[in-house]
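TL;DR need structure tokens for one chain.
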Amino acid sequence: MRRGFPTEFATIASLHGAKPPSATPPADAGRLQAALKSLLAPPWALGAFAFSGDGRPISYEVRPELDGATWQQALLALHRAAENASRRMDIGGFHSGTLVCLNRRVHLYERGNAILALVTRANSRTNEAESALAQAA
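>> reply
TL;DR here they are.
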């Protein structure tokens, strides 16, 4: 299990008060949609996505030029690859990062038990996108 507890440790973890991510109550759906829409407000933003800490898609808001469902799957795969690479390099878990492509940028931001992703135009400013993600989280 990538996140949460393997079955054999679940009882031990519960004795210490820890909860697996799936036991964490989901965020208010209305507030989440408002946050995703606010991330999409700048003209350089193309899509905003939210995932649970254990990698389940929650919601997304996209401009017409993006296929939301396809990007959602791609972003999940990208986050999994970044998480696995971080663990293999023994630098801990993945928390945030930016993938710069020819005509897009992908910003991933992990906060608590949620993962936010923002797809932007290539000419966007990284610091503005990262600041927007940090405020939305």
